[in-house]
Structures are given as structure tokens and as C-alpha cells.
Design brief:
elongated; single chain; 1 helix; 2 strands; two-stranded antiparallel sheet; alpha+beta
């Protein structure tokens, strides 16, 4: 599944962790340019559930 994000020019998606401790300087790990890719089983289950919903609506 591809999502067109051309309209979101200049936007940044970041996911990270921040650790603050008492004796050390705070440290940060930030991941950007994240690409969400579902595993094949999840994609198949989503597709099958969509087909079931379509079939239920037609009845």
C-alpha cells in the first residue's frame, strides 16, 4: 500500500526515545523517514475482512 504524501511537503515524521537519568546527560534516539510496511499476513487479513464487509452490505 503506497500513500501519496506530496501534499505534506516539509513535514517530518519522527519516532524516537528519550532517556533521562540522574547521573548522565540525557540521550535521544530519533528515527525519521519511517516507512510503514505491513507483513503479508496482516495485509491478507485486512483484505479478507474488507471482502466480508462488502458481502454483508449486499445482503
Amino acid at each position: 500500500m503506497d500513500i501519496d504524501v506530496n501534499g505534506l511537503g516539509g513535514q517530518i515524521l519522527q519516532f524516537g526515545f528519550l532517556a533521562n537519568t540522574n547521573d548522565f546527560e540525557p540521550s535521544t534516539v530519533i528515527y525519521d523517514n519511517i516507512s510503514f510496511t505491513p507483513e503479508p499476513t496482516s495485509a491478507m487479513l485486512l483484505g479478507l475482512s474488507g471482502l466480508v464487509l462488502l458481502r454483508r452490505r449486499r445482503r
